[in-house]
Amino acid sequence: MSIPREQVEATLDAFIAAVLDRLEAWDSIHTELLDLWQELKAERADAEASRFRRLEACLGFDPDEAPEALMQQAIQMAATMGAGNFSEIAPVYGRAAQGHAPGVRRRLDRRDRATT
Predict the structure, then answer these.
(1) Contact (Cβ atoms closer than 8 angstroms) between residue 94 and residue 61
(2) How far, in Å, CA of 111 to CA of 116, rounded?
(3) Which residue in 84, 12, 13 sits closest to 55, CA to CA?
(4) What is the Cα–Cα distance from 116 to 106, expressed in whole angstroms?
(5) Coil, strand or helix: which one is 17?
(6) Quick check: 114 pLDDT over 70?
(7) Which of 24, 56, 71, 108 is deepest in the core (most CB within 10 A)?
(8) What is the dihedral of CA 21, 23, 26, 30, to 10 degrees?
(9) Helix (H) or strand (E) holding 69
(10) Backbone angles phi, psi at 26, to 5 degrees
């Protein structure tokens, strides 16, 4: 069974909004949850930040935990092969494969040189 991402996000958005409404009713509106929620909404509104976070997640990392060099390679690979295709190989290339995936990058580099 598969649930569309948009449906999951909409359900979670409604739940968090309801929690924040209850906190506001108790005069506890300024909370860490509110700060995180506002940060998340800002990142969602920024297309580049949203793509970056999706790449981090595809690679198996929490926000701001992925090594910068790996993220730069992932951005480059996603641009070369398309985000959908990259998301298919990301688990092999990401957190679980740290130190074990340099061959993927070499193969892509060879392919790029062969087509140019």
Answers:
(1) yes
(2) 9
(3) 84
(4) 16
(5) helix
(6) no
(7) 56
(8) -110
(9) helix 68-81
(10) -95, 15
| Cβ pair 44, 50 in contact under 8 A | yes
* Measured CA distances, 97 to 1, 15, 45 (Å): 27, 34, 31
- Of 5-14, 34-43, 55-64, 106-115, the least confident: 106-115
DSSP at 66? S
Quick check: 48 and 55 in contact, CB under 8 A? no
Both tokens of 15, joined, read 């739940």
For residues 59 and 106, the model is more confident at 59
User: What one-character DSSP code corresponds to residue 101?
Assistant: -
Query: Tens digit of pLDDT for each residue in 37-95?
Result: 999 999 999 999 999 999 999 899 999 999 998 899 999 999 999 988 988 888 887 77
The burial class, CB within 10 Å (0-12 / 13-18 / 19+), for 25 is exposed
